[in-house]
Amino acid sequence: MSQQSSSTDQVSRQEILEIATLARLGVDESTADSYAGDINKVLKMMQTLASVDTSDLKPLANIHEACQELRADFAEHDIDRERNQSMAPAVEEGLYLVPQVIE
């Protein structure tokens, strides 16, 4: 793609092959055609998006109109260690024993 190209120009198979050569990628002719078609679809979509007037829209901090309310952050001591450790395969002195991973 040359620097003189306008937004209406399309990416050609030849340009894909040239870029692939520069990047040392193995791209064959049929794959280059497919890539060029896909890139041209994306560029067309970007042109469509660029043509939408968004001057009256406020930026969003969240995709949802309302923010999720956060629950109060306080500690609850509802963990039953004895019950949980009774289900564990191996426990010693109140600790869970796991297989050694690193030597």
TrEMBL record:
Gene3D superfamilies: Glu-tRNAGln amidotransferase C subunit, N-terminal domain. Keywords: ATP-binding, Ligase, Nucleotide-binding, Protein biosynthesis. Pfam families: GatC (PF02686). Belongs to the GatC family. Allows the formation of correctly charged Asn-tRNA(Asn) or Gln-tRNA(Gln) through the transamidation of misacylated Asp-tRNA(Asn) or Glu-tRNA(Gln) in organisms which lack either or both of asparaginyl-tRNA or glutaminyl-tRNA synthetases. The reaction takes place in the presence of glutamine and ATP through an activated phospho-Asp-tRNA(Asn) or phospho-Glu-tRNA(Gln). InterPro entries: Asp/Glu-ADT_sf_sub_c, GatC. SUPFAM superfamilies: Glu-tRNAGln amidotransferase C subunit. It catalyses: L-glutamyl-tRNA(Gln) + L-glutamine + ATP + H2O = L-glutaminyl-tRNA(Gln) + L-glutamate + ADP + phosphate + H(+); L-aspartyl-tRNA(Asn) + L-glutamine + ATP + H2O = L-asparaginyl-tRNA(Asn) + L-glutamate + ADP + phosphate + 2 H(+). Its EC number is 6.3.5.-. It comes from Psychrobacter aestuarii. It comes from the Bacteria. Heterotrimer of A, B and C subunits. This is Aspartyl/glutamyl-tRNA(Asn/Gln) amidotransferase subunit C. The gene is gatC.
